[in-house]
Amino acid sequence: MKEAAAEAHLYAVASGHLDIAFVFGEVTRKGYRCKRILNEFPLLALPNEHRLAKCEGMKWEQLASETLMLTDDPAGKEIESYVIRNSSKWGGKLRIVRHSISQENLLALIASGMGMTVVPQSAAMLDRPGVAFLPFREEIEPLIYNAVWRAERRLQPVLCRFLRLLESHSA
User: Fold this and answer.
1) Which CATH class is domain 42-135?
2) Exposed e or buried b per residue across 37-71, where buried means at least 16 C-beta atoms within 10 angstroms of its C-beta
3) Strand pairing category for 67-71 and 42-47
4) Which of 16, 62, 66, 68 is the most exposed place for a label (fewest CB within 10 A)?
């Protein structure tokens, strides 16, 4: 297994270094087959003591004066492009700060009151003390995760079974 940005994964699949990759977002390039394995809606993670933490949900424009922290890792870069794409719909610009730390450490910074971030809804299952997770109150695209492999390559039977297992758990 290898964690990397989507572009690096696609290159590794194309060059035969990986049989299959799991990437955030849609893959529409020629030469690849893609199977959606998970849709998750984003949540805003913020300190429990933050003035917005008691809200029922968030809108992007409510974050205009806030600091949004993101990780500098591959997943953080994918989340950043998602955030920019969705927040630009209201015409404002978010203040984004990048940190070279893991998502878990980023949530620890949030618990200490240093800012907020956008996470997939599965992150709320971590039950992080000091962190509130709020849904967005506007129509928002889900975070999409896909399995991707070379179109001309036949998957090993074990990978086919693995994809069916993932599909059965995400349904």
Assistant:
1) alpha beta
2) ebebebbbbbbeebeeeebeebebebbeebebbbb
3) unpaired
4) 16
| Half-sphere exposure in the Cβ direction for 84 (13 Å, CA) | 10
Query: In this structure, which amino acid lies at residue 171?
Result: A
Q: What is the pLDDT of residues 118-171, one digit of tens each?
A: 998 888 887 789 999 999 988 788 888 888 888 887 778 888 888 888 777 765
Topology at the third CATH level for domain 6-39+143-170: D-Maltodextrin-Binding Protein; domain 2 (3.40.190)
CA dist list (Å): 86 to 20, 25, 137, 141: 28, 14, 13, 8
Q: What is the pTM of this model?
A: 0.78
Pull the structure tokens for residue 153. Answer: 């390559």
